[in-house]
Amino acid sequence: MTPPATRADLDPRTRRLLEGPIAPTLLRLGAPNVLVMFAQAGVGLVETYFIGQLGTDALAGVSVVFPVVMLMQMMSAGAMGGGIASAIARALGARRRDDANALVLHAALIAIGFGIVFMLAVLFGGRALYAQMGASGAALEAAMVYSNWVFAGAVLIWLFNALAAVIRGTGNMAVQAAVICIGALLLVPLSPALIFGWGPLPAMGIAGGAVALLLYYAVGSLVLLGYLASSRSLLRPSWRGVPLRWPLFRAILGVGLAAAVSAAATNIAIGIATALVGRFGPAAIAGYGTGARLEYLLVPLVFGFGAPLVAMVGTCIGAGQRERALRATWIGAGLAVAITETIGLAAALWPHAWLGLFGTDPAMLEAGAAYLRTVGPLYGFFGLGLVLYFASQGAGRLGWPVAGNIARLAVAGLGGLLALHQGWGLAAVFAAQGAALVVYGLVNALTIAGGAWFGRVGWPCTPARLMQRIAPGA
């Protein structure tokens, strides 16, 4: 057993996670992550704008590829990335520095493996998938050009996100923020230069956007590798002579695979809702889609607190500080609920302030306003469920958060189908989506409050009973 460490043995970043004031630490570490997520979202919007200048077929082609790219991003950065950050944080918290160093190689190998799987799956199955999603003719050909370029470099995307997660797991959020934001600034002019041609650069058309994206991830990966090899890095990874150990793979995959199921369930829930709303016509789809974009923008805000929570909870759990891990979780949850609920209430009170940014069609505005007035006041439950999902990644206990997301999927799908079958109208379909968010938040909150991280869930879970689970014999 590793002997207890003194305060002098602890790296300042690890000590901050174990001893620093929780709310200020979360806010300080969370700010770079929010900036990162909005930078990435801004890059996507800029690229879409420039590709749209090539015509409707090019825009339609990229549109059908986009959900598949987003699924890969969610799995590599959020799901498996969360597993990597959690494993690193727990190892550092337990003073297992050698394991933390070895985890870097294991994380890179996992990323390369999943990158190859995504590459082969989409290169060989992309055409059939995009055709099922409605692409045909010139739009399908445009989709294939863009998709083949992007997924030929899938390994680069996975490796970049894995290395960023490794650094996040040490409690350092600033490095990846700097790399991503500087890269985004460079990508904005590079993308149109490759799409339309500029100076010695040839006009590559839609493929230019994909090539610019891959260059961004390639250079970013090299920068992150350079940081890990520098004296500034808390970790000292070795790429040769490190024995591969199943327990280290399991530490990552045990969290990452469960989180991947949750990410898939989220995307399926949105897809089902879109299909249900589609029964009421294209204006209803446009209204729902425009309103739901606001829900997507809540994710980077919650991730701002979720990413440092993964590091803080994982480090505290590894160090045996279970009470502090729970206290940090509920403080993070309170911050996330306050922000998401404020945004949701504002959207419900003034829906046209958001919807008007995307169109003026009266039918679209009516449908979108109905969605925001119904679901917006319940966004706090979405923020609650999502931030507790991140905290559970840090604890290495994702069973109940995955169940909560599946329950959300079931309520949204079955409730929406019931509304259609009974002829209750579009408002009832939106009510089902709101109820699904409530279920998602409550399942996560009640199970964690019931002791899910430290044993079987049981209610009523009094403070004394929870403390007994946290520290048996105390």
UniProtKB/TrEMBL annotation:
Q: Which GO terms describe its molecular function?
A: antiporter activity; xenobiotic transmembrane transporter activity
Source organism of the structure? Aquincola agrisoli
Q: What cellular component terms from Gene Ontology apply here? A: plasma membrane
Protein's membrane topology: Multi-pass membrane protein
Where, subcellularly, is it found? Answer: Cell inner membrane
Q: Give the CDD domains listed for this entry.
A: MATE_like_3 (cd13148)
Q: Which PANTHER family match?
A: MULTIDRUG RESISTANCE PROTEIN YPNP-RELATED (PTHR43549:SF3)
Q: Which domain of life is it from?
A: Bacteria
Keyword set includes Cell membrane: yes
- Membrane-crossing residue ranges in chain numbering: 34-52, 64-88, 100-126, 146-167, 174-198, 204-230, 251-277, 297-318, 330-350, 370-391, 398-420, 426-446
Q: One Pfam family, short name please?
A: MatE
Q: Could you list this entry's UniProt keywords, alphabetically sorted.
A: Cell membrane, Membrane, Transmembrane, Transmembrane helix, Transport
Record protein name field? MATE family efflux transporter
